[in-house]
Specification:
Distance between the termini of chain A: 64 Å
Strand order of the largest sheet of chain A: 10-8-9-1-3-2-20
CATH superfamily of the largest domain in chain A: Aminohydrolase, N-terminal nucleophile (Ntn) domain
CATH superfamily of chain B: ACP-like
Oligomer: heterodimer
Radius of gyration of chain B: 12 Å
CATH architecture of chain B: Orthogonal Bundle
CATH topology of the largest domain in chain A: Glutamine Phosphoribosylpyrophosphate, subunit 1, domain 1
Shape of chain B: globular
Number of domains of chain B: 1
Order of helices and strands of chain B: HHHH
CATH topology of chain B: Non-ribosomal Peptide Synthetase Peptidyl Carrier Protein, Chain A
Helix content of chain B: 55-70%
Largest interface: A-B, 29 and 22 residues
Strand content of chain A: 5-15%
Distance between the termini of chain B: 16 Å
Number of domains of chain A: 4
Shape of chain A: globular
CATH class of the largest domain in chain A: Alpha Beta
Number of helices of chain A: 31
CATH architecture of the largest domain in chain A: 4-Layer Sandwich
Chain lengths: 701, 87
């Protein structure tokens, strides 16, 4: 019989671990490597089919690429070239610490890396690699990547606990090895043009190169207007690819080879029999440890606090298990429908954090929206990233560079309403004539006024409660996908004609894990959220892009791979008990999180949409760019949307009649796409620049 | 109010609000099956009917049998107007 330690024992053990960690590890010079990366590999030159460009030209190209990423790391820009390859790096240095300079090479110069992100277990890895005979020159996690690759080869990424996008130039093998973290926290894009391979943290860096074409990918547009994101590796731009989460990319001998190094897995209920307490104890211990690792920094670490369960719990874990003073940051809204400041204050009082918040008005969202799109580099269907753009500005202005956040808890621990909704729909489908079961759906969305008046017949249709739907692998997400896809009615006839034979859902189906249709419905729903919306929207448009717009790095304890792998084994009955979401997490949070937060109904993070762009009193656009972007002339120039239909939508919004999700999503989607075209396609990219004033140049002959 | 006038008003509303001016609507076509209407659309439709025809629609009447095509809407409104007249 397995001995189950009392919860108090777990607490003591982890507290000791943390105390010990503070003494030995927190004194390390661990600089957050907030940065941008870029690079070029001339494949034809590498194969000898043409002469390599003049190294000065390669360096100039690298400078122009990396200069566009200065917001990610404004303190130092560096480039490295060797033969057909070149790497570039933009760095935000907290203290001038030579050990962290990038691109970084091994002592023998065989390997050089450019790296964005954090390897949280670099201390342990360094010890392990030293035991294998590796000799370190610095204390940085960057060097750990080089030695890990030298020792384990491509499998090195399986040993990393962190969030990364990096590229290693392997001089001897004339090979570029790129990798992205397991769940897609850090971005990495690439393209092939004129026989050259280009990569960068953001697409704007690729667009500085004259060889790289700039066109909207219409299939990408269809995917985004169905799923809120494209399906990696596709992006919204033609021929620009995203390295999917959990993948490495090997570029050698003129070819590209993508290899998966990790994937989400869900276990059968019976595979790990344990008591509820045992599940809870282990999850808590893992969360404490993942939070501890994410506090490794020699700069103060702050925390985002939304007022929901997840960020309240991460805040509590930091305060309880480190005792360190903590600064928390929140967004509050003028609009009471979206505001959570009461719950935020409850947590602030409970854990005595130093708190700062930023009040966000409708007009604020509209004002920063063009900047937001410049950073998301993809259309949005909701404005929710905009307040987070304002929040990272606040964090930056307060001198903070790193924040812990609660992202990933809903995906891993079963928190989203869509999981509950799918459960209710299945329950209703078992008795289609029931008069009471549809009422549960109304109860699920008390904040959606339009649902409250619906008859069961309409609910049945809108929520796909039909026997045929039950066998659909996308059952959980059908209502959302279908509602979102209605926004495609605004596509121009030309775009619709191009897409006449294309189906985003068929494409999504093609990429599902082989045995997906045999999975439990709850796991299917979790996978669809965690494999697509999480990396494609939550961690990018709302995450990395909004934080890095102001050189702020997000860290996510719930997305430690040990937590994700453990969560995949938690029985679904402990993720959602009845209709009580995140049951196990709430059990852990009891005593750590104020009762008011534990008891509150789940409220998804949302922000006001159409009202951010149109004055409700006059019906007029609040900003000139809104009128300009949605004008008939501009819409006809871009050719992606039907100008007459958009005109009707704008008219409806002006009259205050666009009250529904579809109209709001359509407006935000059209406006953001128009801004994207304006920013990235119609505007001439900056010419190749000379090295900027802030740089050090590293050139290997 | 004559049947043609009701049909014209309803058609115009559906084309403007659900099709955003694109294309036409067939009188017998189900709004649900054609994906023309969503949960907000039902409320928009009811608000329009109440304002335009000065009728009150009860919750129990918010069913596809009454509202799911132009043809059904015309019949439903005619019945409601007739009820009003006979009061």
């Amino acid at each position: 019989m397995v001995h189950r330690p009392e919860p108090v024992t777990v607490t003591i053990v982890t507290t000791l671990l943390l105390r010990n960690a503070r003494q030995t590890e927190f004194t390390e010079n661990k600089h957050p490597t907030m940065c941008g990366i870029a690079g070029i590999f001339d494949l034809q030159a590498a194969r000898g089919t043409r002469y390599a460009d003049d190294p000065a030209d390669v360096r100039a190209a690298l400078w122009s690429m990396i200069s566009t990423l200065e917001h990610r790391g404004p303190d130092a820009l560096n480039v490295f070239t060797h033969g057909p390859a070149g790497l570039a790096h933009s760095r935000l240095s907290i203290i001038d610490h030579a050990g962290g300079t990038q691109p970084m090479a091994t002592a023998d110069g065989d390997l050089t890396v450019t790296f964005n992100g954090e390897i949280f277990n670099y201390v342990e890895l360094r010890d392990e690699l030293k035991r294998h005979g590796r000799v370190f020159q610095t204390h940085s996690d960057t060097e750990t990547i080089l030695h890990a690759y030298a020792h384990w080869g491509d499998d090195c990424v399986k040993h990393l606990n962190g969030q990364w996008a990096f590229a290693i130039w392997d001089k001897r093998r004339q090979r570029l090895f790129l990798s992205r973290d397991r769940i897609g926290i850090r971005p990495l894009f690439y393209t092939l043009a004129d026989g050259k391979f280009f990569f960068a943290s953001e697409i704007k860096a690729l667009f500085t190169q004259r060889e790289v074409s700039r066109e909207i990918d219409r299939i990408g547009l269809d995917q985004l207007f169905t799923l809120w994101t494209t399906i990696a590796p596709r992006t919204i731009f033609e021929d620009i690819h995203e390295l999917p989460p959990g993948h490495s990319l090997i570029v050698e001998q003129g070819t590209l080879r993508s290899e998966r190094h990790w994937q989400l897995e869900y276990a059968d209920e019976s595979s790990s029999p344990r008591s509820t307490d045992e599940w809870a104890d282990e999850l808590l211990a893992l969360l404490i440890d993942s939070t501890r690792l994410r506090l490794r920094a020699d700069v103060p670490v702050g925390a985002y606090l939304s007022g929901g369960l997840d960020s309240s719990l991460t805040t509590a874990l930091i305060r309880k298990y480190t005792g360190a003073p903590l600064k928390t940051f929140s967004v509050t809204f003028d609009d009471a429908d979206f505001d959570e400041s009461g719950y935020q204050q409850d947590v602030v009082r409970a854990w005595n954090t130093e708190h700062q918040s930023i009040r966000c008005t409708h007009a604020d969202i509209g004002r920063v929206f063009p900047d937001v799109i410049r950073h998301t580099e993809k259309p949005l269907l909701r404005t929710a990233p905009a307040p987070l753009f304002l929040l990272s500005q606040l964090v930056h202005d307060q001198g903070y560079k790193v924040v812990i956040t609660g992202e990933g808890a809903d995906e891993m621990c079963g928190g989203y309403d869509i999981f509950k909704e799918a459960k209710l729909r299945r329950f209703w489908a078992r008795d289609l004539d029931s008069k009471h079961r549809p009422l549960l759906l109304k109860k699920l969305y008390p904040y959606l006024k339009t649902l409250q008046a619906q008859s069961p017949d309409y609910l049945k249709a809108f929520f796909h409660v039909r026997p045929d739907d039950l066998a659909n692998p996308f059952f959980s997400h059908l209502p959302r996908f279908e509602l979102t896809a209605k926004t495609k009615a605004f596509f121009s006839p030309d775009v619709r004609q191009d897409l006449v034979d294309y189906s985003t859902l068929n494409q999504l189906h093609t990429g599902l894990p082989r045995d997906f249709e045999e999975w439990q419905p709850f796991h299917q729903a979790q996978y669809l959220e965690a494999a697509h919306l999480l990396p494609g929207y939550i961690l990018s448009s709302q995450g990395d892009r909004m934080a890095m717009a102001h050189a702020v790095e997000g860290r996510f304890p719930f997305l430690d791979h040990r937590v994700m792998e453990f969560a995949g084994r938690i029985p679904t009955s402990l993720k959602m008990r009845g209709l009580n979401e995140k049951y196990l997490l709430k059990r852990i949070a009891k005593g750590l999180v104020p009762d008011s937060v534990l008891a509150r109904p789940k409220q998804p993070y949302r922000a006001p949409d159409a009202v951010s762009f149109f004055d409700t009193a006059t019906g007029k656009p609040r900003f000139d760019y809104v009128a300009e972007s949605l004008s008939t002339e501009r819409l006809q120039q871009t050719g992606l949307f039907d100008s007459r239909a958009v005109g009707k939508l704008v008219e409806k919004i002006g009259k205050g009649q666009a009250i529904g999700t579809k109209d709001n999503m359509a407006l935000v989607g059209i406006l953001s796409t128009q801004l994207l075209v304006d920013e990235f396609i119609d505007r001439t990219p900056p010419p190749t620049t000379a090295p900027p004033a802030i740089h050090r140049e590293t050139v290997t002959a | 109010m004559i049947k043609e006038t009701i049909g014209h008003s309803v058609r115009e509303f559906v084309i403007d609000n659900f099709l955003y001016g694109q294309g036409n609507v067939i009188d017998q076509e189900s709004f649900l099956q054609s994906g023309l209407i969503d949960s907000t659309g039902v409320l928009e439709l009811v608000t329009f009917l109440e304002d335009r025809f000065q009728i009150a629609i009860d919750d129990e009447e918010l069913v596809p049998d009454n509202l799911d095509s132009v043809e059904r809407l015309v019949t439903f409104i005619e019945t409601k107007l007739h009820e009003l007249k006979s009061l």
